[in-house]
Amino acid sequence: MSKRAIIVGVAALVVAAFVLDVTGSLDRYLALVFPPSALSPAYLKGKYNQGQPIRLLIVPGHEVAVGGAFYRDFWERDLNIELSEKLAKLFRSDPRFEVFVTQDRSGYLPEFAEYFENNRVSIRTFYDRLRSVMRSLVSSGVVQKKTDGVHHNTAKPELGMRLYGVNKWARDNAIDIVLHLHFNDYPGRPWNGPGKYEGFAIYIPEWQLPNFEASHDIARSILRELARYFPISNYPPESAGVVEDQDLIAVGANASLEAAGILIEYGYIYEPQFANTKLRSAALSESAQQTYNGLARYFEGMTAPARGTATLPHVWTQEIAEGTKNQPDIFALQIALSRDGLYPPAGKSRDDCPPSGNFGPCTRNALRAFQAYHSLRSTGKLDFDTILKLNQLYAL
Ligand SMILES: [Zn+2]
What we know:
Layout: H1 3-19, H2 26-30, H3 41-49, E1 54-60, E2 70-71, E3 74-75, H4 76-92, E4 97-101, E5 103-104, E6 107-108, H5 110-118, H6 120-139, H7 157-172, E7 177-184, E8 201-205, H8 212-226, E9 242-245, E10 260-268, H9 272-275, H10 277-300, H11 328-339, H12 361-373, H13 384-394
Parallel strand pairs: 1-4, 1-7, 7-10, 8-9
Antiparallel strand pairs: 2-3, 5-6, 8-10
Helix pairs in contact: 4-10, 6-7, 8-10, 11-12
Bound molecules: zinc ion (ZN).
Zinc ion (ZN) binds next to loops.
């Protein structure tokens, strides 16, 4: 090899390594089997910068007949639907996005119900073809089968076929981003009590799949915003926040999606801010807002100014004693102090101190720090002077 060729080769590797800095290693790049999806980060950002709306498909998880996890008196699907309504509203108020939603409270919207019904055969063929290609790639060793992933309940065959139907619909309708909404559960918990883990996790296609790159970058951006207010899952396989998965149909198993595929588990179903009806709407609004912020900031670029919360402005009207639980005022206090870096208090993580709406030691210590910062008497209580200051800062 000539010296010149070596220099060019090395330069190309440096450029490739630079381009890939956040999305994966060079080894991974050289090992790619599928050509990367045409819906690359560069394509999506170019489209956005030219003022063409980004086509977003929102898929609230589970179905009327089988609503996912169940806790006390509600189904996971109830949360997914309420969250999808809030998300759709946010994205529809922004002309840079064009929004589609698969279902509402009563089931699939006619467009999707009819699509599944009228395309039974072609969805089946779509799946069979993709799966046989993937199987031969795996058996010939070209694609490495990932066996160490997080275990998910396997979708029932008809549901699985509808999920492939969603992916085919997304292809047929030039969707750019597919966003699946879920809440997690911990199987070992008592039937009416909380389980071992808490926090959110974002699933994306495993790196060998063609839609990995944009999915990864968008997921990182959403992670950054959600993590300002909500704990990242403390279930060890999810603790990085963004989790690659080869088998989830939702994010494009068997190379079935061209669009970026993102599945968010927003938290565990028994976490107080989601399980308690006095807090749920506020917690879901904040989850939706930070998801929107993450996507918007992905396109605007990291230098764009931070975006707001759904919870603020908020007016505090009453003193609340330590030990009080499920209090919207305490949830709002935790969000306000999170925004300004005072919650969780020093030495604690967001896993120790989630935005629970419960007034315990986390809130007491954060209040002390807030009071010290504003030269108020350091009581750790939500007292009159503190309420006055909070309203001065966060009520407008
Ligand atoms: Zn689910």
